[in-house]
Amino acid sequence: MGWFKRLKDGIQTATRNKKEAPEGLWYKCRECKETSTVKELKENFFKCPQCNYHLRITSYDYFELLFDGNYEELFTGLVSKDHLNFTDLRPYTERLKEAKKKTGLTDAMSVAKGKVNRRPLVIAAMDFKFIGGSMGSVMGEKIALSINHCIETRTPLMILSKSGGARMMESAFSLMQMAKTSAKLTQLA
Question: Taking Cα atoms as reference points, which of 99, 184, 96 lies closest to residue 145?
């Protein structure tokens, strides 16, 4: 038996007295449960201002943090495909559509060129939210094209790795990307 008895069910606040907070204005930390503004969070480089918990950020957040303002995305026309008609619990094509819809990305890697301290730089950043940041044939090709671009333009390359490993839905196509990217990276040595 409870100590208190509720006389009326539900919250009785009039609708006209309720205030809606705009989406994307506030952030509640997963670790300390404190609330801060998204602006404060960005100014603190995506660490909680109260407890310094590091948030997982997207490739575009990295571009915004690292480049001197403007940047140009490269190799946007490359899109993952299901060459094997792979199906486990769900078809791979369905997983790709869901990941694209959820993240707005076409693959787990985005590449951009811009300037850092007025010096040119190419950044290839992985995005864990797209199928665990797994490496498929498109990611391998984007890394290879990035390296070619950097060699041709004599520009440094930064790769931000946040990968869950090889994309099993692409089988040998995915596994070959490690050999491909390793061989291409030796050209920068």
Answer: 184
pTM reported for the whole predicted model: 0.82
Reference 164, options 129, 137, 140; nearest CA is 129
Sort 1 into a burial class: Cβ within 10 Å, 0-12 / 13-18 / 19+.
exposed
Quote the CA–CA distance of 172 and 31 in Å, as a whole number: 39
Distance CA 101, CA 139 (A): 18
Bridge-partner residues for 111, per DSSP? 74, 124
| Residue-wise burial string across 144-183, b where 16 or more C-beta atoms lie within 10 A, e elsewhere | bbbbebbeeeeeebebbebbeebbebbeebbeebeeebee
pLDDT, residue 13, reads: 63
